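TL;DR need structure tokens for one chain.
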Amino acid sequence: MQGMTLFLILIVPTIILGIYAQHKVSSTYNKWVKMPSRGRITGREAADAVMRKAGVTGIEITETGGHLTDHYDPIRKRLVLSSENYRGTSLAALGVAAHEAGHAIQHKVGYKALKLRMALIPVTNIASQMLPFVLIGGFVFGMLGLIQLGVLVYLVLTIFQLVTLPVEFDASRRAKQELLAIGIIDRDEMVGVSKTLNAAALTYVAAFVASLANLAYLFLLSRR
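>> reply
TL;DR here they are.
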């Protein structure tokens, strides 16, 4: 099978899926960030309440700039929320903030998938740094050795993306469960939270599919 045919079959569909996933999360977030929660509690307050209920202490909640730059840093024990979610009272803001708090809960209880993901971060960072050189050398100059190295690089990245899926899905499950249990949102408000988190989850699925497709593509090229 020719390289171009492989590219069209394996890579192009994942590019389309990635574009769709980014559009989906952006449009969904933009819709529900305009819908304020009845309780008018901020994202920061929601994250703090979710963690306190789970007995999570010692986590700094900080504000950062950018759009959807929210994340939990298990190394520094820091929960970082973008300004619109840190200060916002929308259903989208509460969903994202509680999701990040879900990661903090995973860290406290020793969630195995999160521990594995953390263990993979150093080797994944190395693989990510090698990727541009592998792709340029392998694709542009046709160096077989670099294509084979690319297979190993994408194997690492694919494993990392695979492990990321249960981590993200579980954090969203915890977020929705705790927001209702604490009474931060009413049950009929859950639709906004769920749709926001489900759209975000699609981006992780797309990333895994793209990594897997690139792995298959390079592997088949290396076998030619």
